[in-house]
């Protein structure tokens, strides 16, 4: 992944900024901050650096401010608000319309075995459809494989808010090399924990106790807010672990 030029809203992207796919058949994937106008016009909607992932033939505008806008294939942490006959209506961001979760959109779910989620339940889901004209739709399994692949209800633990940029860094396959993040590795040397990261700026943490869970969440938020480099993250981890 690499950062290219800094762009402003309303700017037209030139072809030399577009990634060259490793496979000629790979589609170009546009992330947050970019809008496609057929047949081939790409316009920026946010200010920030253009980031490119050549392996995935994807590009987006990195921007920590503003609200999250659902994009197809994003993983999100959502809160069940209420249910209807066939749907769970879930909040993925404050003050926006609810995302729609089919009650059968879980691994192996049938009308008899589907999860019984109540208001306030937390779920880890993937955005399966997103449009500015329609409410986003999410699912807790992969329709291609039928497997949950780590998605589903999040039980216990705590939710922490992080910036959208931090969420994207945490979701990188190589956090240390590509995202310059080592804080989770540093803490995991002494504390066992589970984590789920949503592109909507939410992170769920579950450790053996409340104190340990709070430590992990605080470490992530401080790393994010203070823009700590790997040396700063290592010092932060040591300081926090001394308190346990």
Description:
The chain has 244 residues and is α+β, with helices and mostly antiparallel strands. It has five helices and 15 strands. Strands 7, 8, 9, 10, 11 and 12 form a six-stranded antiparallel β-sheet that branches. Strands 1-5-6-2 form a four-stranded mixed β-sheet, with no helix packed on it. A hairpin with a 7-residue loop joins strand 8 (87-91) and strand 9. The two termini are 36 Å apart. The model has no long low-confidence stretch (mean pLDDT 89).
Which descriptors would you attach to this protein?
244 residues; four-stranded mixed sheet; alpha+beta; six-stranded antiparallel sheet; globular; 32% strand
Profile the largest sheet. Answer: 6 strands, antiparallel
> What proportion of the residues form beta strands (DSSP E)?
25-35%
How many H/I helical runs?
A: 5
Low-pLDDT stretches:
none
Annotation, overall tally of beta strands: 15
N-C termini distance: 36 Å
Q: Give the C-alpha Rg.
A: 19 Å
**Would you list the SSEs in sequence order as H and E?**
EEEEEEEEEEEEEHHHEEHH
Mean pLDDT: 89
């Amino acid at each position: 992944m690499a950062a290219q030029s800094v762009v402003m809203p309303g700017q037209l992207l030139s072809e030399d900024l577009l990634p060259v796919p490793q496979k000629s058949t790979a589609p170009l994937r546009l992330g947050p901050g970019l809008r496609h106008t057929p047949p081939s016009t790409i316009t920026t909607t946010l200010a920030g650096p253009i980031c490119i992932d050549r392996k995935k033939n994807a590009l987006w505008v990195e921007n920590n401010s503003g609200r999250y806008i659902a994009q197809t294939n994003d993983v999100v942490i959502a809160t069940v608000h209420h249910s209807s006959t066939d749907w769970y209506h879930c909040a993925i961001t404050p003050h926006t319309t609810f995302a729609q979760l089919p009650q059968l959109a879980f691994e192996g779910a049938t009308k008899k075995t589907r999860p019984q989620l109540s208001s306030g339940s937390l779920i880890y889901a993937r955005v399966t459809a997103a449009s500015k004209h329609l409410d986003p739709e999410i699912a807790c399994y992969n329709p291609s494989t039928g497997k949950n692949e780590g998605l589903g209800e999040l039980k216990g633990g705590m939710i922490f808010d992080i910036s959208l940029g931090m969420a994207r860094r945490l979701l990188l396959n190589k956090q240390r090399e590509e995202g310059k993040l080592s804080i989770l590795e540093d803490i995991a040397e002494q504390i066992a924990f589970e984590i789920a990261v949503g592109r909507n700026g939410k992170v769920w943490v579950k450790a053996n106790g409340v104190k340990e869970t709070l430590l992990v969440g605080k470490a992530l938020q401080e790393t994010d807010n203070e823009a700590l480099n790997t040396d700063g993250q290592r010092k932060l981890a040591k300081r926090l672990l001394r308190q346990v």
